[in-house]
């Protein structure tokens, strides 16, 4: 069979399934992505053919600001359609098209490949109530911004109409979509490689002059970028009291300084800069280590040496890092928000606290560090939950293959 994956930053969520299909000599696998992004990435698999598209121009200056994002999605959709037509001219006709519609890439694929089966990855549907918007009183949303959300969902609405079926990684993320489309969407996570992401009592982490190993008192925090959507500001506000209570603790923070979600800052400013300046000398910064973004192997070492791992999230897309922390056997202290609660029951796979309650965060972390033996079973249950529900080899990948074949 012929498979076409479409993702502006391929492989994205499609890494494992694309590789598995490419391993089968009976399949031809082609990926289509943004040249700017894919030029910076190594080849994912020797048998995955990479095709690029390139955006010709940005949104117009006179465009209504509600439409700027949608216009960009249309332009991206046109660029993808042009590249898809070139594939068609070369004789490639996909049996199945798997696309992430969030950036507009899937807008016109049904017109180019009408005979193919189209599967869309539905990650998150924006709403002005009940999810991320206006969740955090520190970052209120204006009515104008709320109205704009309707247009922000436009490309996904087209995908909901044209896709033959959809995929959402979690039940809560699926629940955010309009009820009339829910029968079209299946729950199917990308999967966690529990054979690779596992506990290692001998693990150590080295970077420059830093040397840490399993058994030391290490508090970890991970996010793609250090920003409010992942509770970075709440975690930072907890540091003065937390480090006072735990005089021997070291804090390892993994994440970049860009903004993935929510409101961007003025040029040259970062949330890390804002909160370190706010806290000033109330924190012993010699024990707080900002590691930036790490290669995957080093990131796993951070999880494996963690004494307690802190994860926070708005009601939004659930991070891979939380599931990987569980698979690595971390003692998790996490925010009591719907995406987290789908996976973690308080006291069983981790400890939950109110997102905005820094005192509860400190108390929970202190309890884990003071009595580590009390959380051995919690760590084991966390890993068992990932193996039973999200294991790549035994659960998720077989489900993906069954779906696509």
Structure description:
The chain is of the alpha/beta class. The protein has two domains: 187 residues, 3-Layer(aba) Sandwich (Rossmann fold); 187 residues, Glycogen Phosphorylase B (Rossmann fold, 3-Layer(aba) Sandwich). 37% of the residues lie in helices and 18% in strands. Strands 3-2-1-4-5-6-7 form a seven-stranded parallel beta sheet, sandwiched between helices. The mean pLDDT is 94.
Write a brief caption for the model.
The chain is an alpha/beta fold and 405 residues long. The chain is built from 15 helices and 15 strands.
What order do the helices and strands follow? EHEHEHEHEHHEHEEEEHEHEHEHEHEHHH
Distance between the termini: 8 Å
Mean pLDDT: 94
CATH architecture of the largest domain: 3-Layer(aba) Sandwich
User: Roughly how much helix do the residues carry, as a percent range?
Assistant: 25-40%
Strand ordering within the main sheet: 3-2-1-4-5-6-7
Q: In terms of structural class, how would the helical and strand content be classed?
A: alpha/beta
What is the 3D shape?
globular
Largest sheet: 7 strands, parallel
Q: How many strand units?
A: 15
């Amino acid at each position: 069979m012929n498979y076409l994956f479409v993702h502006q930053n391929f492989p994205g969520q499609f890494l494992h399934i694309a590789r598995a299909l490419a391993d089968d000599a009976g399949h031809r696998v082609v990926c289509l992505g943004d040249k700017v992004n894919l030029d910076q990435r190594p080849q994912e698999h020797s048998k995955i053919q990479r095709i690029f598209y390139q955006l010709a121009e940005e949104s117009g200056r006179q465009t209504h600001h509600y439409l700027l994002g949608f216009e960009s999605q249309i332009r991206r959709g046109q660029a993808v359609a042009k590249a898809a037509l070139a594939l068609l001219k070369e004789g490639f006709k996909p049996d199945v098209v798997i696309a992430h519609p969030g950036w507009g890439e899937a807008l016109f694929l049904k017109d180019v490949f009408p005979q193919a089966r189209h599967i869309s990855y539905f990650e998150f549907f924006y709403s002005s109530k009940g999810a991320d918007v206006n969740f955090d009183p520190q970052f209120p949303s204006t009515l104008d911004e709320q109205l704009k959300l309707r247009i922000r969902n436009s490309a996904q609405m087209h995908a909901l109409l044209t896709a033959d079926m959809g995929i959402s990684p979690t039940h809560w993320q699926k629940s955010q979509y309009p009820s009339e489309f829910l029968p079209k969407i299946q729950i199917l996570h990308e999967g966690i490689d529990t054979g690779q992401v596992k506990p290692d009592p001998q693990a150590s982490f080295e970077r420059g002059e830093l040397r840490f190993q399993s058994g030391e008192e290490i508090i970890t925090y991970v996010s793609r970028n250090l920003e409010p959507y992942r509770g970075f500001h709440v975690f930072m506000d907890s540091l003065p009291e937390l480090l006072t209570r735990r005089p021997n603790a070291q804090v390892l923070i993994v994440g970049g300084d860009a903004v993935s979600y929510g409101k961007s800052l003025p040029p040259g400013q970062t949330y890390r800069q804002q909160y370190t300046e706010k806290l000033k000398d109330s924190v012993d910064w010699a024990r707080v280590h900002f590691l930036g973004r790490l290669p995957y192997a080093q990131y796993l070492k951070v999880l494996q040496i963690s004494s307690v791992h802190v994860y926070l999230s708005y009601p939004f897309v659930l991070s891979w890092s939380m599931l990987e922390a569980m698979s690595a056997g971390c003692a998790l202290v996490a925010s009591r928000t719907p995406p987290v609660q789908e996976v973690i029951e308080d006291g069983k796979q981790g400890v939950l606290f109110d997102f905005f309650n820094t005192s509860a965060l400190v108390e929970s972390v202190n309890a884990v560090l003071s009595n580590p033996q009390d959380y051995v079973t919690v760590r084991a249950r966390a890993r068992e939950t990932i193996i039973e529900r999200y294991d790549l080899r035994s659960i998720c990948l077989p489900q993906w293959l069954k779906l696509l074949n």
